[in-house]
Specification:
The protein has 279 residues and is α/β, with parallel strands linked by helices. The chain has 9 helices and 6 strands; from the N terminus they run αβαββαβαβαβαααα. The structure holds zinc ion and manganese (II) ion.
Length: 279
Amino acid sequence: MSHQTVFAAELAWPEYKRRVSGGDCPILLPLGSMEQHGHHMPMHVDVLLPTEFARRAATEIGALVAPPFTYGYKSHTKSGGGNHLPGTTSLDGATLVNALRDVIREFVRHGARNLCIVNGHFENSWFIVEGIDLALRELKWAGITDVKIVVLSYWDFVHEEAIAKLYPDGFLGWDIEHGGVLETSLMLSLYPEFVSLQDAVEHAPARFPPYDVYPANPDWTPPSGTLSSPLGATIEKGELLLSVCTEGIVSALRKEFALPADAAESVTREARTTLVEQG
Ligand code: ZN
Ligand code: MN
């Protein structure tokens, strides 16, 4: 096949089988949400961004990117504006957990042993852990114990030096970055056609009491739907974020999956054994 792709679902099955069945090709699975992101961005930001980080990382390490989860767990007032907002379309926790468990089990059935969940939506976090735990437990019962799953959220790779450049006036935490400088800068550098900064709403960072109330009180959410102003976003910040997070993800996966530092393409277990034997 002449078309080069890292997207698993773009392959025909014999090629997919050739890549995956030996167990050496990592599978990266982006997890997002359909969630409002203010007046200036579309609702699939949390899908587009982790998918692009997964694509970049997969290209570097010879992995495949699985089709992303395009719905996620319910938006929380303090990290995504809240689940009451129009457009935000969420799964119950148990649905997400079970769907993730099923998909992990399927990739392992195909032969994959190294997987990475690339998360783009904060609220998915503990449901990812639960889905993985159930999948590993089932696989263990089936006698399969050599599966390794890395879980990461791309923003956790932004180091202090980058934070100082991104937030010269002070950093208020990732939780109120919903629709703010982080996501808007990344979207500006990757998908400028989807961003309309002229529609962005300037407002002070959201402030919340140190507790939650259910049902959620919609008055806690800034009317814009974002939790901090996106007006500090720039293409340059987006490019800095892209390089810092991609580098971080790539080196984490090389370490955890014991990949050679310069592997442009994954090799089969047999081929690697041969290389090792040849010294
Ligand atoms: Zn988001
Ligand atoms: Mn989100």
